[in-house]
Amino acid sequence: MAEQNHSCHYNESMGFFYNNSGADDKWDKTQLILVQVVGSLFCCFILVSNAMVVAAVITNKRFHYPFYYLLSNLAASDFLAGIAYVYLMFNTGEMSRRLTVKEYFIRQGLLDISLSASLSNLLVIALERYISVMNWKVHSNLTKRRVTLLIVLVWAISIFMGAVPSLGWNCICNVSDCSQLAPIFSRSYLIFWSMSNLVVFLVMVAIYMRIYTYVKKKTMMLTPHTSGSINRKRTPIKLIKTVMVVLGAFVICWTPGLVVLLLDGLNCKSCKVMKLKRWLLLLAVLNSVMNPCIYSYKDEEMWTTFKNLMRCIGNGTRRQRSTKANTRPLSSAHDTGNSQLPSEEMKSDDQGILKT
Q1: Less Cβ crowding at N or C end of the chain, within 10 Å?
Q2: For residues 52 and 229, what is the distance between their CA atoms, to the nearest angstrom?
Q3: Region for residue 140 given its phi and psi (left: phi exceeds 0; alpha: psi -120 to 50; beta: otherwise)
């Protein structure tokens, strides 16, 4: 039995690992179709809305600052999350048991990369906000080169974190260490993954608590020396509120899932983690849906840019329709011109008959 547990099973399908871990990932057919239809609508919204965030930052020169570059990178990670959710939805239930080990690594790797990218982006944005607030500026002095390096670093770390299980930290050669939520991931990896993300959550919360207390103290110091209230649009507090709402939504949506992953890693038999899996996935999808709504609601300039982009798209489609419509009358007029010739000849013949 020990030899079987420590032999490698790279050629087995995922059904072997699901049976080994005792994970029940079966879906009712009607329920699965409903999830795929509703999930596809959500994913379409995620893809379109986050693509519009990136387009808004590129097209609007008022967004050409480090904060908005990092915010567009966060939208890009949500865009990747939308792709990952589509791949997951159509490879779950009975389909998940038919997947090969490589296909399962791809499925989970996309999710892990998108989550790592979102978390890394939020951490970098928190540091950028901290630098700007400590200098009492709306935007930090980070150069475009440094911002680009930070974005590249975020994606390099995210890709590495997503590839760690496929690089060897798995239970393919030691099935007794397999988890239930991810049947080819080692329980030790789940503990590392969940704990590291929860620690980053705490670090970000601590940074924003420090920012909040500093801004409050600074505002109280400046108020007696100002004739009126401080213009909040000219202070960093406006952008901080946007990021704090995004961070709050991220923590609320992902913390339950990370806690359940930690419990699975600790081999909690009475926790019934598989029953919570679907609801936790729904929370993760909702987080990617919420972020573009938060950007547009909390930032008037972003919402205005969204409307301008939609107006440009609408005008583009109208122009295409109008050009098509204009070509049709020209051809029809030519045809009618030719068709009028016989009628004129008939009229002349009729007049000749009347004269006779």
Answers
A1: C
A2: 35
A3: beta
- Model's pTM, two decimal places? 0.80
How far apart, in whole angstroms, are the C-alpha atoms of residue 163 and residue 108?
Answer: 9
User: How long, in residues, is the chain?
Assistant: 356
256-258-260 Cα angle (round to 5): 70
Q: Of the candidates 191, 201, 124, which has an alpha carbon nearest to the alpha carbon of residue 157?
A: 124
Reduce the DSSP state of residue 189 to 3 states and report it.
helix
What are the counts of helices (DSSP H) followed by strands (DSSP E) for the chain? 11, 0
Of 157, 146, 169, 71, nearest to 114 (Cα)? 157
Q: How far apart are CA 345 and CA 156, in angstroms?
A: 80
CA nearest to 45, candidates 75, 73, 24: 75
Burial of 265 (0-12, 13-18, 19+ CB in 10 A): buried
151-210, pLDDT tens digit by residue?
A: 999 999 999 999 999 998 999 988 888 988 889 999 999 999 999 999 999 998 898 888
